[in-house]
From TrEMBL:
This is Kelch domain-containing protein 4-like. InterPro entries: Kelch-typ_b-propeller (IPR015915), Kelch_domain_protein (IPR052588). The lineage of its organism: Eukaryota, Metazoa, Chordata, Craniata, Vertebrata. Coiled coil: none annotated. Residues 372-390, 457-489 have a biased composition (Acidic residues). Residues 315-348, 367-391, 455-502 are annotated as: Disordered.
Length: 544
């Protein structure tokens, strides 16, 4: 009460930052204490994992299994982080959830790599934790290893990086030695990529280097507006020499062929024959007032040995091609070449799925055009099996456009899980699973189908909006009295024996009005509520 308004605001700001930081660390610690209660390995058969993005999907080095860890989900109001561990049996098409004591804290967007040592190991580095409202972030730089043979987690080192108000991008290179369990920072020469996040890395076929592709970064433009940049450049980090005499060199790479359009959030996996596979992603179009994204479901191959990009095109069913080549001997047709091409060209099927809350999802599927109908006599001559013909004429299903999906390759097959796409202001998080034989490239197989009814999306109703407007009107009427109170720093007193929660509920209108007055009319409602509650807490604790 004895502080001036400026001193009070300054101390309040510093305390709010401290409270938010402590709250995030406390939340992580609370989750870890819950995990610490697990003392034995528990394996449970289960349905497919819930919808998520930015998880890790790896192929088991010895078994016909895929390993899924972590990820995130946003339902419109709350962000959920996971540290669940799932194993997918490829042959049986079944899932098992494995609970192992002392797992890594909940996270998303971590890096993961599998090595065959000791019966197989999954190494997990870094990642991100977010507050439930998605406003605060906590970045890890810890290293974990999952020993697949013994079903145990091991923490190699523990180091966290607190959330930052601003963003920092890096372009440094570090190597971890699996024999000595030590980190070393590399000092490559040559043309260094600019700092970025979300770039993808893949080894060269001979193991002498690493390919770096794409990424995303932001720069501060005019009027303090952040402008995002999608990178589509490629670099080779090459190693020369061995052990103590080894040297690393950066080199800018300019591939030939048909390059993917610029995008972020794409998935990358290493396929057979020294080829990297790129699937999906999103290209955001930003302006000062809005952000709209174009989502992709295309597939590109990058031949590392030939330094060449080329798009993948589904070849379709063999029986379909065989039928198209058939015909009566001596049969003539009046179709022109252009008409034939048009008849055989791909068609786009648009399918609308209505979610439980009435939101309409539009999913596009590309399929080869139906063959022109032939008369019954010709069909009898060809003796094409009806089931085979039906399969040939069925549309080729593809995963819907998405970003931040999980991809890996096992036994020459590409597996794709989850991810997300947006419809207007709504985000759809997926839990479907597809596979594609990379030797045939004929069709996508649906292993787990997306169920739109499982989509949860919470948003404020019109009645809530009207209530907020009414509150705003009341706040305006009481504006003069609040301004007088602010000048005197005479805030609502705490009643004897009153709990913090009761005090915040009773005085919520006052503190939100004060927070709004301090933050301005353009501040987001979530931030206003958070600051208002923090202000009330600061004052309450000060009175105690």
């Amino acid at each position: 009460r004895n502080l001036g308004i400026k001193e009070f605001k300054h101390i309040l700001y510093l305390h709010i930052c401290e409270v938010l930081s402590e709250d995030l660390e406390a939340l992580i610690a609370e989750f870890q204490s819950m995990d610490a209660k697990k003392t034995q390995v528990v394996e449970t058969s289960c349905p497919p994992p819930s919808p998520r993005l930015n998880a890790s999907l790896c192929a088991h080095p010895e078994k016909d299994e895929l390993i899924l860890f972590g990820g995130e989900f946003f339902n419109g109001k709350k962000t959920f982080l996971y540290n669940e561990l799932f194993f997918y049996n490829i042959k049986k098409n079944t899932w098992v959830k494995v609970e192992i004591p002392n797992p890594p804290p909940r996270r998303c967007a971590q890096q993961a790599v599998v090595v065959p040592q000791g019966g197989g190991q999954v190494w997990i580095f870094g990642g991100e934790f977010a507050s439930p409202d998605g406003e605060q972030f906590y970045h890890y730089k810890d290293l974990w290893v999952l020993h697949l043979g013994t079903r145990t987690w091991e923490q190699i080192n523990a180091c966290y990086s607190k959330e930052q108000v601003d963003y920092i991008y890096y372009n440094d290179i570090h190597a971890f030695n699996l024999d000595t369990f030590t980190w070393s920072r590399l000092q490559p020469t040559g043309t260094v990529p600019c700092p970025r996040s979300a770039c993808q890395m893949t080894p060269t076929h001979d193991g002498s280097g690493v390919i770096i592709y794409g990424g995303y970064s932001k720069t501060r433009a005019k009027k303090d507006v952040d402008k995002g940049t999608i990178h589509s450049d490629m670099f080779l980090l090459r190693r020369e020499g061995k052990e103590e005499q080894e040297k690393w060199t950066w080199m800018r790479v300019n591939p030939s062929g048909v390059k993917p359009p610029p995008r972020s959030g794409f998935s990358l996996a290493v396929g057979p024959g020294g080829r990297a596979l790129l699937f999906g992603g999103v290209c955001d179009e930003e302006d000062e007032e809005s952000l709209e994204g174009d989502f992709f479901n295309d597939l590109y191959f990058y031949d590392i040995s030939k330094n060449r990009w080329f798009p993948a095109q589904l070849k379709g069913n063999k029986s379909e091609k065989k039928k198209r080549r058939r015909g009566k001997k001596g049969e003539q047709t009046n179709e022109t070449e252009g008409e034939k091409e048009e008849a055989q060209g791909p068609t786009e099927i648009i399918k609308e799925i209505v979610a439980e809350d009435g939101t309409v999802m539009t999913i596009k599927e590309v399929s080869p055009a139906a063959q022109a109908e032939e008369d019954s006599e010709e069909e009898e001559e060809e003796e094409v099996d009806e089931e085979e013909e039906a399969a040939a004429m069925a549309p080729l299903v593809e995963p819907c456009p998405r970003s931040s999906a999980m991809a890996t390759v096992k036994h020459g097959k590409l597996y794709l899980y989850g991810g997300m796409f947006e419809v207007g202001d709504r985000q759809f998080t997926l839990c479907d699973l597809y596979s594609l034989d990379l030797h045939k490239i004929d069709k996508w197989d649906v292993l787990v189908e997306m169920d739109p009814k499982t989509q949860e999306w919470l948003e404020e109703s019109e009645s809530e909006d009207e209530e907020e407007e009414a509150k705003g009107g009341e706040d305006e009427e009481e504006g003069e009295s609040e301004e007088e109170s602010e000048e005197d720093a005479d805030h609502p007193p705490v009643k004897p024996g009153e709990a913090l929660a009761d005090y915040q509920t009773r005085t919520e209108k006052y503190w939100l009005g004060l927070a709004r007055a301090n933050m301005g009319p353009d501040a987001k409602e979530k931030k206003v509520q958070k600051v208002g509650h923090a202000m009330a807490k600061v004052f309450f604790e000060d009175q105690e």
